[in-house]
Amino acid sequence: MKTAGILVTVAAFIVVTAGGCSEEPGVEPSAAQMRAIPADSGAIGTRTSVKCVRVIDGDTIEIEGGDRVRFLCVDTPESGHDGFEDAKQFLIDLIEGRTVELEPDPEHDDKDQYGRLLRYVHLLSWDTTDPDKRYTTNLNVELVRQSYSRYETRWGSSSLYENEFREAQHR
Question: Which end of the chain is more exposed for a tag (fewer CB within 10 A), N or C?
Answer without folding.
Answer: N
